[in-house]
Write a structure and sequence with these properties.
The protein is mostly helical and about 160 residues long. It is built from six helices and no strands. The two termini are about 15 Å apart.
Length: about 160
Amino acid sequence: MVELVVALAILVGLVGVVVPVLPGSLLIGGAVLLWAVDTGGRTAWLVCAVAVTVLMIGALLKYAVPGRRLTEAGVPARTLWVGAGLGAVGFFVVPVAGLVLGFVLGVYLAERRRLGEAAWPSTLAALRAVGLSIAIELAAGALAAATWVAGVVAT
């Protein structure tokens, strides 16, 4: 029964990575931890340690890699802060989709103010960075989920 609950929590966590309403990686890690506590034993704790490590590496990479690409594209940190601020506002104005829409609008407006008519390439670079960030976190979540499945089979 615990495996079913954990599987559903992992699935919801994977959806939460793509739809930024739930803390996806945190939910996946918590579910695997719950399974390890319930199952017990060396194998379960090793699976939990590997899954949580994968999620932590994914969390680091999801900021480092896109951030480096944005720096290379010449998008300043101030622009990203404006995007993040409008994304937070957008999250409450238009549930779920407002986070992404607000971020994109914020980046565009900040770059429009900074560069004038040439704001669109910077905005596209920011969109690509957001997509890459989501892809990295989703890959880490899927790898952690696969680790858990291997652990369930092994125990």
